[in-house]
User: Which sequence fits this backbone?
């Protein structure tokens, strides 16, 4: 799984490089983001703009990361393409995650 | 009617072959929102065959047939793996019930069949001659 | 080995399903130049089955099998149509000979088999049980 | 077949809108460009930048158009993507067509 990262103020921005998040990637998605959380990054914003497709196993991996973050800090997602937003809405996970359009909005949401 | 049949080996990385064929076949009759629903359903279904019916044993086969009619698409998925308890499917109601504020108890799985039910117009399952047959129908 | 089998109905618009599967399967082992050669070969071959073996009668079937091994890909294409005169294939030498300055006599067709021969490492044709079998091999 | 067109000086620029030129489109490709030639357009530049794939039946359709143009005028192609250039080179049709990179170069070649 290709993930680029950068620090902006107190936030770690993770930029996924995959077109599809499916069952063949779900485990490494979960493991790699979990590493960043365990490394004590308290604000994480994940950029999904390259992602055109998310299946339920990868959605589950993201939920698992959100739970791992728990009260340690905050996690937001931004740059979601239309089919990805639909997936979050269909499964009602749009009520659970903080979904932002742009990096700016994601940073604002985390630092609020 | 336009007929297409894809047979893949039971590995998660091959699910995207089914996704590609589904969207290419369906693109002739469905809008982009419906295409997303079809792609998602086929991926969830084939993932389930690999994960549950074949319990992730590789080099088994999953067959995916596409029949595109004037006003609807039928997708038939067949595997030789373990049977499904049909009550599981019957008890899925296509909705997603959980408390969004109860972080610790958020579901990390169990979405697949509900997604398929919510995305397709008809979902049928049959066990025939030691095979699992899934019949998905979507109207244009 | 990763095994995939695609069966399409004999219509030119379905050839791109074969192209999609070929490039998705092969993308795991080949670079982009080789992928183009594989895509082109499979399109030319399936077009030929539809045009020549089936003489454009629709609703016949063309089967395309992909076997991806560690260091090579085998593509086997099968149809139930008319046989090929094998000398046609033998006489193709994978080169394109014509006078580029003689506009009126430029060829508008007859490229297909030469393209396949030039793009793949091995091209074999067999007639077996009233079926045409094409075997293409490309090494990674 | 979707084709946009515009006039630049004495040249008709045809902008193909297809991702693939294959046997399912070859006849309409040939027929539609032939119409433009028969309508007495003496300089035609065809923009292929959307095209990612050309098979031999579509290549044949373009050759047929070149022959129809004959001594009436001139036809160039530009904006060819890598797989398309490879196809012209493989079949040695790069020696027959005038292939340009940009619209500017195509217009220059036609007006020279
Ligand atoms: N193709 C299948 N074959 C056998 N059992 C299945 C199949 N699909 C689903 N199941 C059963 O139904 C349950 C619910 O499936 P699903 O809603 O897709 O969620 P998940 O796969 O995340 O468990 C699975 O846990 C499994 O027990
Ligand atoms: N799959 C096939 N089945 C039967 N005959 C074929 C097949 N492929 C090619 N042929 C014969 O070989 C000839 C050369 O084919 P090809 O090089 O692809 O050029 P084209 O298809 O443009 O004629 C065809 O005209 C046809 O007579």
Assistant:
């Amino acid at each position: 799984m290709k993930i680029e990262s950068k620090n902006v103020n107190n936030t770690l921005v993770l930029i996924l490089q995959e077109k599809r998040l499916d069952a063949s990637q779900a485990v490494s998605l979960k493991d790699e983001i979990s590493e960043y959380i365990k490394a004590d990054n308290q604000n994480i914003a994940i950029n999904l703009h390259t992602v055109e497709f998310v299946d339920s196993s990868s959605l589950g991996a993201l939920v698992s990361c959100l739970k791992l973050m728990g009260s340690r800090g905050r996690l937001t997602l931004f740059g979601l393409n239309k089919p990805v937003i639909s997936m979050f809405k269909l499964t009602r996970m749009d009520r659970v995650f903080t979904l932002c359009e742009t990096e700016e909005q994601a940073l604002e949401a985390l630092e609020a | 009617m336009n007929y297409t049949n894809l047979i893949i080996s039971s590995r998660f990385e091959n699910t995207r072959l089914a996704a590609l064929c589904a969207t290419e076949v369906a693109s002739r009759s469905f809008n982009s929102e419906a295409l997303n629903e079809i792609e998602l359903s086929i991926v969830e279904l084939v993932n389930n065959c690999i994960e549950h019916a074949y319990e992730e044993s590789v080099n088994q086969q999953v067959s995916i047939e596409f029949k595109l009619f004037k006003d609807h698409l039928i997708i038939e998925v067949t595997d030789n793996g373990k049977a499904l308890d049909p009550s599981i499917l019957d008890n899925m109601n296509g909705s997603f019930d959980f408390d969004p504020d109860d972080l610790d108890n958020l579901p990390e799985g169990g979405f697949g069949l509900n997604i398929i039910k919510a995305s397709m117009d008809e979902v049928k399952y049959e066990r025939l001659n030691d095979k699992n047959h899934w019949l998905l129908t979507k109207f244009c």
